[in-house]
Amino acid sequence: SSELTQDPAVSVALGQTVRITCQGDSLRNYYASWYQQKPGQAPVLVIYGKNDRPSGIPDRFSGSSSRNTASLTITGAQAEDEADYYCNSRDSSGNRVFGGGTKLTVL
Amino acid sequence: EVELLESGGGLVQPGVSLRLSCAASGFTFSSYDMSWVRQAPGKALEWVSGISSSGGSTYFADSVKGRFTISRDNSKNTLYLQMNSLRAEDTAVYYCAKEFGVNYGMDVWGQGTTVIVSS
After folding, report:
1. How far is CA A35 from CA A88, B53, B119, in A?
2. pLDDT tens digits along B24-63
3. Which residues of chain A are within 8 Å of residue B107 when distances are taken between CB atoms?
């Protein structure tokens, strides 16, 4: 089965830019989607497709992809962005897979 | 309002079965693939199972293959997860999620139902 690898933890100063990455072979063929999860809450989709945001997601969130790596960038991080972030994609068998998650701390 | 509401969780002993339900509202349920995702305490999200809009295709993570089945009743706007031979490692919050597009993601999530497998 395919795997997606994320850094366990990342920190960013308030108002600065942070990039969270996700690596995996499935990303060569499938887009990553990104989810924000705050403690005790269900995940929320923040980025999907090439670089699209669902309605209501601030435009400081953006996505990109190159070869086997997908990235989520937060430009001008806010205190409310502190959360766990997960990438997800399909694999060739039609299954989905999540990365191990990245805990974002806003300093 | 688009909504997913899970039910059926609880405390069960190892080896028994449990069926989770997910009631959908606010969208055309029969048009969308659906997934179950779980999260063990303090752990990452884990995709468990998915089903096509018609129910004709199903997918399972290796960790549950052969023990769990997924189904849907489009006339009742309800998704199911039948969990058999439950193990302690199946203890988690189980979320149902609506997929949109083959290569896009899961845009609507329920609030989850908790399954605890313990003797």
Report:
1. 8, 23, 34
2. 999 999 999 999 999 999 999 999 999 999 999 999 999 9
3. 45, 48, 54
